[in-house]
Structures are given as structure tokens and as C-alpha cells.
Design goal:
two-stranded antiparallel sheet, 60s Ribosomal Protein L30, Chain: A, single chain, binds magnesium ion, alpha+beta, 5 helices, about 30% helix, about 30% strand
Length: about 160
């Protein structure tokens, strides 16, 4: 018997560079550096998308939104997340909750967390209380600690759509 839930895990990292906007969870965060990527490089939203795709057993984000496809140049990752949410619904599932961790040495993310939760929750069709966004530093260790990039982890739990 198939259990009445599905869990998925997602991870992403993007490089920090000058002259790019820093977008996390669909929220523009003022900073001297931004994330480099083909889309808007929203590492948090990408980790959430991968967690949802993982829960669906559909593979990874790169398969559906390949970085070498010009269609996704500068793409708003929250729009891509909305597409993934549509697939969740089409497969008969809904989001029970999502929990995430953003690993960034700087800037301080705490003031922006409610906005990130709200933006992701809207895209997922859930309440902000169903979207955990936590922030931590890497204690100055490794590439993230040297502020060469920002990483994000996400888990998502899906339950069947009430019919
Ligand atoms: Mg990515």
C-alpha cells in the first residue's frame, strides 16, 4: 500500500558576484553582492522546487528548466515554482508544509524572513505558517563562509488533495 504522504528534499547553491540582485524566496534583499545564475538565481526557491519535484518522484529542476535554455534567462523563480505547484496538484497532491534553511554569511536575513514566507506561501497555495524559512551562517567555514556563495536546503511534505 502506498502511504498517504510523500516527502522530498532539495539543495542548491549559487555563486555571489557583484552587480547582480540578491533574490531569496522571491524577495529582493539589499546587498553589495547578488547570486549568479541563468535565471534570477533564487537559491531558496530552487531548493523548494527540487524538494517538491523529489516528493513527486519527478527528478530535478535542471530537467524541467535547463540552465542552457534561453527561455529561462533572468526567469522569476517564483513563477517557476508556481509551475511546479501546478504539477503537484495535477498528480493529486497538495503541500502539507515546507521547511527550509538558507546558509549565508551575510547579509542578515532575519528581517526579510516574513516576506520570504509570504511570497513562497502564495506561490504554493498555502499559509505562511506552512512555510518555514530559517537562516544560518556557515561560521565562516568553507566557500559559503568566505561569502563566495549562498546555499539553501528544503524539505517538502505532500498529502493527497481532498476530493
Ligand atoms: Mg539553482
Amino acid at each position: 500500500m502506498t502511504p498517504p504522504f510523500r516527502i522530498g528534499n532539495g539543495y542548491d547553491i549559487h555563486r555571489l558576484v557583484p552587480e547582480r540582485a540578491l533574490i531569496l524566496g522571491g524577495v529582493h534583499i539589499p546587498h553589495t553582492l547578488g547570486l549568479l545564475g541563468h535565471s534570477d538565481a533564487d537559491v531558496l526557491t530552487h531548493a523548494v522546487m527540487d524538494a517538491l519535484l523529489g516528493a513527486l518522484g519527478l527528478g530535478d529542476i535542471g530537467h524541467y528548466f535547463p540552465p542552457d535554455d534561453p527561455q529561462w534567462t533572468g526567469a522569476d523563480s517564483v513563477m517557476l515554482l508556481t509551475q511546479v505547484r501546478r504539477w503537484v496538484a495535477e498528480h493529486g497532491w497538495q503541500v502539507a508544509n515546507v521547511d527550509t534553511v538558507v546558509v549565508a554569511e551575510r547579509p542578515k536575513l532575519k528581517p526579510h524572513i516574513p516576506a520570504m514566507q509570504a511570497r513562497l506561501a502564495t506561490a504554493l497555495g498555502v499559509t505562511p505558517a506552512q512555510v518555514g524559512v530559517k537562516a544560518t551562517t556557515n561560521e565562516r567555514l568553507g566557500s559559503v563562509g568566505r561569502e563566495e556563495g549562498i546555499a539553501a536546503h528544503a524539505v517538502a511534505l505532500l498529502v493527497p488533495t481532498r476530493s
